[in-house]
Amino acid sequence: MNALPALVLLPILGGGVAWVAGRIRPVPTPASRDAAWWVVLATLVMETLLLALVTFGHQPHAGPWLAHFSMPWLPAMGIAVRLDMDGLSLSLIWLSLVLCFPCVFLSTRQVTVNAGAFHFLFLATLTGVIGTFLATDLFLFFFFWELMLVPMFVLIATWGHEDRQRAAMTFFMFTQGSGLLMLVSILGLVMAHYRTTGVLTFDYVTLSRTPLSPALSMLLMVGFFMAFAVKLPVVPVHVWLPAAHTQAPTAASVLLAGILLKTGGYGMIRFNVMLFPDAASRFAPIAMGLGVAGILYGAWLSFAQDDVKRLIAYSSVSHMGFVLLGIFCGSRMGMQGAIMQMLAHGLSTAALFLIAGAIQDRLHTRDMRRIGGLWAAMPRLSSAGVFFAVAALGMPGLGNFTGEFLVLLAAWHVSPPLATVAAAGLVPAAMYALRMVNRIFLAAPRAGLRPGPDLPARQMAVLACVMALVVMLGLYPQPFMTFSLPLPVADMTGGEDGAP
Amino acid sequence: MHALALLAAGITVMGAIMVITRRVAVHAVLYLVVTLLALSVVLVMLGASFAAMLEVIIYAGAIMVLFIFVIMMLNLGQPDSQREKEWLRPRAWLGPGVLAAIVCMELLYCASPLSGPARLPVPITAHDVGLSLFGRYVLMVELVSFLLLAGLVTAFHIGRHREGGH
Amino acid sequence: MATFLIPLLVLCPLAASLIIFISTGRMGARGVGTVACAGVGMAAVLSIIVSVILLSGPATGEVQVTLWPWMHVAGFSADIAFMLDRISLVMILVVTIVGLLIHVYAAGYMQDDPGIARFFGCMTLFVAAMLVLVLASDLLCLFIGWEGVGLCSYLLIGFWYDDPANTAAARKAFYMTRVGDVALLCGLLLLATTTGSLRTGAVLAAVTNGQVSASGVSMAAFFILAGALAKSAQVPFQAWLPDAMAGPTPTSALIHAATMVTAGVYLIARLHDLFAMAAPVMALTAVLGTLTLLVGGCAALVQSDLKRILAWSTISQVGYMFLALGCGVWQAALFHLMTHAFFKALLFLAAGAVIMRARHEQDIFRLGGLRHAMPGLTVAFVAGASALAGLPLVTAGFYSKEMILSGVWHVRFGLTRDWSVTGHPLWAMALLGAFLTALYIFRCVFIVFFGKPGTVAAGRTSRLMTIPLGCLCILSLFGGVIEMPDTLPSLHLFSALLDPATPLSHADEPVWLVLAGAIVPLAGLALAWMLWGRPSSVMHGARTGGGLDARHDRLAIWQHIPDRASTAAGGLMRAASVRVFTIRAGFLDMLARWGGSIGDRGALLLDRLHNGRMRWYAAWIAGGLCVALAVAVLS
Amino acid sequence: MPAFSFNDTLVLAATMFSVGLAGVLVRRNMVFMLMSLDIMLNAAALVFVAAGARWHDATGQVMFVLILALAAVETAVGLAIILRLHAHGRPTLDADAGNLLEG
């Protein structure tokens, strides 16, 4: 059986089993809660093995793709369940899986109220994400795009913190609204293709060759761009991010920050720059301007926050500004920089959210004014916090800097003044990161607060692995870079049994 | 317009107006019966004798009698008619009256272009109606029977607990 | 053989730092001290071995070693690559030897501090980062060291994090150096765009053979200069160094005297070919250097805190180095860098010992008359002071300053094709700077050691601390002989070592030039003795110092301007972002709330419609009928 | 047989319909509403028959029969409800009072 559909379906099946496991004993004894947790862990391990199989056992007949799978779904409409994996999707799926492990080890254990359902939704989101990264049939892509949204909404709405309803609703509204814009563009593209060639198909490869008038292609491209701009958070439409991140439970905000933001970036690479190359190049100045605005705005806003998670959320707006800048630079170097930035940001921000979550579990507050210095009480947690804050501010030798440098270099080729302004964004980045460090880690301990226990060794080991990955991404990114380049559309001849 | 036709139409309209303006229910019902009879005259003039007969027998005969029977049962006394009077003050009927007048004007305005030649209507006998009723519309007759059955059951069910009254 | 040693050289301190961080306090203070000193000691030994290998090799030989490809992308390639040539040789010797001495001193100084593990972890990490910076042959790899050094200085300045002022000072230091780093990054971006790779050799070759446009060269040079100025706390960015004294004294000695602040000097010396092509930037460097040395001198004259005097003196001395770089005599700059590292480290360590024994009292006016209580420290401090002032013949400072002065005298700036100006005015101001230096350092010496006794000193300086002081004394007194001015027996070992190709001997140098350089420090010493040395003058109020202090206060006022400017900028930024945040929250949230309220009001309106009254519905149906008919009829 | 043109019947039906509508809207007593409703029904039936006469098609009268049946059922159910409400202690038979949907 081809590995790709298994890769997509395994998480949700695992989730189902976890839900059932969670509900076997009506009263949520620790055993039942752990049962669900163990099932999730098993699912993740199997998923990783499967992914390793796909990565290293290269399938011969998959043509230019790393792996290919196609099965007609609605032949009348030309819709097929077509999953294709290339370097880009593989690296992002690896990122998602890598993030799930610390998430499971550090935070999902604390979920007591109906843990089974929590784990099911957690894995359902993962399925949605993996599906989004693999689908090369526009309809299937949209299906997974919406699928990953619903469990995340429920996760935030039920297990979130004090103001979770409003946050979940804003999150859902923004993403759903923009998703519909994308649907309109998809249908527009399909119709344009049908009208010119008489073939009704949703297949990415054939659609990428439709002759489009400049105006129409720009319109469709902007439709797609809006959906990904909301998800990536580009500045004007980022309003949902701080609320959603702050109110989401730790595991959900790690998923949200680590993976869901990357689907926006992935979408832009796959469905903007590669599907409408000329429109994208014409749209590039605007997008790059938005990117730089995002960098400065996100950094400036996070400088003024008192809530830890809100600060980290705004910092991701700033980092994603680099991704946007990189993607629309038009050069392969910019693209590689954007991908590296996505990978590095995924790791460092997810770790920061885990640490913020750990602080909140122990001190029941996220307000930096009330947390005070934790270095004396929790040296391990604080040292990890300082490390990832430093990674977030773009310390060379760590992951973020590699991405940011390549993006800046690509931007410099295009327009030096813009690149200088973007580089200037590194100063406020240092400001908010160090302010955070000096308010909650390296500061005088707050008298009134009873500090909780430090991170247990096991969880610290997991964080140490993430640290090692960030350092490796910083010092030896070469394998990641050559490995994670998207397959250019030109030689996407499409699998032999492509959609009819 | 022939004198008889004018007379019949005038009685129908006057009857209708009287129905909606009476305070006492019984008077209203009787005026309604008069209206229906005038209407059957109009139907005859249209050449639909079978329909006219039905109107007289079923509508005026059966339904109106039912009306009278129910109203008598309600034995609406003096307070009821006093209340009707209070309900009929101009403030109450001015708004709907205007609205109904507008609807009437629009209908009349719409009807004007359809004025074809006043051809002598060839009467359609009961024979033709019977043929088409059980020819093309036999299914509809079945459906009507269902409708009647439903009405019967509902009326019976609602009326049944009259004395229990919970 | 050397190719294997160089990466090991960097690895030793790094490994020591990792061991210390991972052990997190399981090792006692002594254990942490020994691991740190061992790490840096190994690095020192290795650097000596490597220097012997290099010097025995060919004159212009250099050792290149590429560890692994870092970023190979279409249009740009960077590797983690180290290079050892004569410039970096001098630097690694300075960094490792001075670093070792400071670590040994710190083992004694910090032994009763609970956070000693974190301290030594950061210190060894700093040495590793500095070595990466110095040895990197790829400018991007240099940038790793550059930022790593900035991070470690932030962690160490804010070491005693209980007091928010310390962490604020640390953040301020990081922000200001970060501004410089961004400028440097822009410079690197510009060079990478034009030359495709940031290897030093490739960049310098591309610049010399004209591959980079003239404007590009001067722009890149300007950006790199800005980065160097911020890192070395020169005039526009000097506000953070005095505040950086909040850190422990060994940190101030290592980072803010010997190594980090000189990173900028090293970078410009390393890229002197690039700067030679950008004449206006060279002139700017010289002018800024001169300005800084004057500002530093004046400010140091009016400080009352012992460590702040030394901080301002560092700024002033680095100003000398920038002046030398601006005038093209980068060998003199590096020589001064080396001697400065020795005597400034000595001064800081001696000051640290004095402060520790005077129960953490840092105000020189309250210290007073310590020569009887601490004879050893007095000798050390006086030695350092004389080297700093550059007393003739007997101290290293004299020779390095002499080399700079002669270089400045002989330079000729070709600003534009036909208008060129000689370095004489700069030379004069440098001389004035030397006078000021002697003045402020001996003011401090007389007040602290020779005034009337102030606080009572306690305890003894532990043996661990005296050994480094001794070594540094010897180095700062006799370290200078290896480079003699021509009039004296012309011995040019150092410049020969650095750049054998271009001999630096100016045969026609007038004798009075060297004499001037010798007399000025003595004059400064004499004036200082008159003002603060003689018991009588001390009588009528030490603080006014015979009226000289008052006048200098005015002079020093405007050195606070950038200081106030930066705190104001920080406050402005914070207030602006808070206001923007409220505005943003106001604006966008109002949008959301406004949308929500429309929904509510609309719902309310509709609700009233459905009041359950049949006639009301009938009326609406009739109304709908009217509208429909009207539309049908009219259209 | 005197001619009764199609247009005249339409005029008559329109007036009857609007009178019936006014009755429904004005009268709050449910009985009167039912009666007005019957008037409207008859107006509609009249139009059907007139159309049948005009185009000489028996369907008009078939529809008339159906409307009769409909009117019968509707009156029966209506009156049953009225009786129920009346007996249930709501003498006023006010159409507006019965808006709370409970039994």
UniProtKB/TrEMBL annotation, chain A:
Topology of this chain in the membrane: Multi-pass membrane protein
GO biological process, any: electron transport coupled proton transport
Domain NADH:quinone oxidoreductase/Mrp antiporter transmembrane: 135-422
Residue spans crossing the bilayer: 36-56, 87-106, 113-133, 139-159, 171-192, 212-230, 251-271, 283-304, 311-333, 339-359, 371-394, 414-434, 455-476
Principal subcellular localization: membrane
Organism lineage: Bacteria, Pseudomonadati, Pseudomonadota, Alphaproteobacteria, Acetobacterales
Entry similarity comment: Belongs to the complex I subunit 4 family.
Keyword Nucleotide-binding in annotation: no
PANTHER family recorded: NADH-UBIQUINONE OXIDOREDUCTASE CHAIN 4
Single GO MF descriptor: NADH dehydrogenase activity
UniProtKB keywords: Membrane, Transmembrane, Transmembrane helix
A GO CC annotation given for this chain: membrane
Any Pfam family the entry gives: Proton_antipo_M
Protein's name in the database: NADH:quinone oxidoreductase/Mrp antiporter transmembrane domain-containing protein
Subcellular location(s) of the protein: Endomembrane system; Membrane
InterPro entries in the record: NADH_Q_OxRdtase_chainM/4, NADH_UbQ_OxRdtase, ND/Mrp_TM
Key word Protease present: no
UniProtKB/TrEMBL annotation, chain B:
Positions of transmembrane segments: 6-21, 28-50, 56-76, 97-114, 134-158
InterPro entries: NADH_UbQ/plastoQ_OxRdtase_su6, Nuo/plastoQ_OxRdtase_6_NuoJ
Membrane topology, as annotated: Multi-pass membrane protein
Superkingdom of the organism of origin: Bacteria
EC number: 7.1.1.-
Entry similarity comment: Belongs to the complex I subunit 6 family.
PANTHER family hit by this protein: NADH-UBIQUINONE OXIDOREDUCTASE CHAIN 6
Subunit: Composed of 13 different subunits. Subunits NuoA, H, J, K, L, M, N constitute the membrane sector of the complex.
The protein's name: NADH-quinone oxidoreductase subunit J
Species the sequence originates in: Komagataeibacter intermedius AF2
TrEMBL record, chain C:
PANTHER family to which the protein is assigned, alphabetical: NADH-UBIQUINONE OXIDOREDUCTASE CHAIN 5
GO molecular function: NADH dehydrogenase (ubiquinone) activity; NADH dehydrogenase activity
Residues annotated as domain NADH-Ubiquinone oxidoreductase (complex I) chain 5 N-terminal: 70-120
Residue ranges of every copy of the NADH:quinone oxidoreductase/Mrp antiporter transmembrane domain listed in the record: 136-412
UniProt xrefs under Pfam families: Proton_antipo_M, Proton_antipo_N
Superkingdom to which the source organism belongs: Bacteria
Protein name from the UniProt record: NADH-quinone oxidoreductase subunit L
InterPro entries in the cross-refs: NADHpl_OxRdtase_5_subgr, ND/Mrp_TM, NU5C-like, Proton_antipo_N
TM stretches of this protein: 33-55, 90-109, 116-136, 142-161, 212-230, 251-269, 275-302, 309-331, 337-356, 377-399, 426-451, 463-482, 511-532, 616-634
Species per Swiss-Prot/TrEMBL record: Komagataeibacter intermedius AF2
Membrane topology: Multi-pass membrane protein
Keywords of this entry: Membrane, Transmembrane, Transmembrane helix
Cellular component GO terms held in the UniProt record: endomembrane system; membrane
GO biological process: ATP synthesis coupled electron transport; electron transport coupled proton transport
Cellular localization per UniProt: Endomembrane system; Membrane
Automatic annotation (TrEMBL), chain D:
Cellular location(s): Cell membrane; Membrane
EC number in record: 7.1.1.-
GO biological process, one term: ATP synthesis coupled electron transport
Pfam families from the UniProt entry: Oxidored_q2
InterPro entries xrefs: NADH_UbQ_OxRdtase_chain4L/K, NUOK/Mnh_C1-like
GO molecular function terms listed in the Swiss-Prot or TrEMBL record: NADH dehydrogenase (quinone) (non-electrogenic) activity; quinone binding
Entry's transmembrane regions: 6-27, 39-56, 62-83
Taxonomic source organism: Komagataeibacter intermedius AF2
Purpose: NDH-1 shuttles electrons from NADH, via FMN and iron-sulfur (Fe-S) centers, to quinones in the respiratory chain. The immediate electron acceptor for the enzyme in this species is believed to be ubiquinone. Couples the redox reaction to proton translocation (for every two electrons transferred, four hydrogen ions are translocated across the cytoplasmic membrane), and thus conserves the redox energy in a proton gradient.
NCBIfam families, alphabetized: PRK05715.1-1, PRK05715.1-2
Reaction it catalyzes: a quinone + NADH + 5 H(+)(in) = a quinol + NAD(+) + 4 H(+)(out)
GO cellular component: a single term: plasma membrane
Similarity remark: Belongs to the complex I subunit 4L family.
Top-tier EC class: translocase
Name of the protein this chain belongs to: NADH-quinone oxidoreductase subunit K
Keyword Chloroplast recorded: no
First-listed, main subcellular location of the protein, grouped into a coarse class: membrane
Keywords for the protein's UniProt record, in alphabetical order: Cell membrane, Membrane, NAD, Quinone, Translocase, Transmembrane, Transmembrane helix, Transport, Ubiquinone
Gene3D superfamilies linked to this entry: 1.10.287.3510
Membrane protein topology class: Multi-pass membrane protein
Subunit structure: NDH-1 is composed of 14 different subunits. Subunits NuoA, H, J, K, L, M, N constitute the membrane sector of the complex.
